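Lab notebook, entry 112. We have the chain sequence and a SMILES string for zinc ion, and the next step in the workflow is to get a structural model of the bound complex before anyone spends time on docking refinements. Request logged below.

Task: model protein plus zinc ion, output structure tokens.
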Amino acid sequence: MKNKNGSSCREIMDMIPMFLDSEMEITMQQQFLKHIKSCDNCMEELRVSYLFHESHRYLDEGLYFDVEEDFKKMLQEKTGFVNLAVRLRILLLVLICICVAVLMLFWTGIIS
Ligand SMILES: [Zn+2]
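Result returned:
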């Protein structure tokens, strides 16, 4: 099954361990989150994987560990981080363009 974002559920589900270990490239993570939010199947798969991934915390935090709340928080944090990283990347690109433009102006002797 493929949804409108182009990633298949199989691909997304294979990425879940990488996502939970934060070992995913930022553009990949963006695509991953986009798919997860529009696909109930993958969201459920991620939720279950997260539960296993974080299960050791039941031992540490006991009843105080609220998986549902924690899962939502984790997704929000990841989304926030991805958005920030993407914005920083665009900003960096703009800065590089400005530097190149200034250099070009120097080279062509328009400003000296
Ligand atoms: Zn899916």
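Notes for the group: The chain has one domain: 9-107. Worth checking against the assay data. The mean pLDDT is 88.
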